[in-house]
Design brief:
InterPro entries: Glutathione-S-Trfase_C-like, Glutathione-S-Trfase_C_sf, Glutathione_S-Trfase, Glutathione_S-Trfase_N, GST_C, Thioredoxin-like_sf. The protein has 208 residues and is of the alpha+beta class. The chain is built from nine helices and four strands.
Length: 208
Amino acid sequence: MLTLHDHPRSGNCYKVRLFLALIGKDYRSTFVDVLARKNQTAEFERISAFQQIPALTDGDIAIWDSHAILLHLAHHYAPDWLAPLPLVGAMHAWISVSANEIANSLQPLRLTRVVSNAEAAHHLGVSEALLDVPGMQARTDHVLRRMDKRLAENRWLAGTDVPSVADIACYGYAALAEEAAIDIAAYPAIAAWRARIRQLPGYVPPGP
């Protein structure tokens, strides 16, 4: 049985929950109260090297990082979610966008809206005085415009005929854009892509 170490408000955890639902894979969920610092234990470090959620245990294997988990699940249980060889580079590139550009723009911007600035600063590893919300907003707009351009030309981010792991990776926080005070109507191709994902069999919405 798979065990997901999870928090219902985490966009990265949501990516994994969504993917497990889409591929019809049963799992157990274990709540990790990160706001109470319950992840900062030696026991949890044995599962997640940086004490981050989500983390997944699959038998004797422990995987941390949402993107590593998505790829593990796809390789082991849902290979149809992997882009074919000519497009595998594009799939990995958009996974990297989720891990880098989105993780440094939309993800922290949304965090500043759903928790206090002090809590956001703690999770981002900076002092509260260094929180650059206008910078996050500018970077978010830049990333979303790039995504919107890509999705205006392709139904799915990797250029495939069907969704791939890249779409789920980027969708996790794109699904929560409104919580970052983003008007998704300004990005019509992303809005249409989000609607396509919501129509996939097995889809589950974000949130607790």
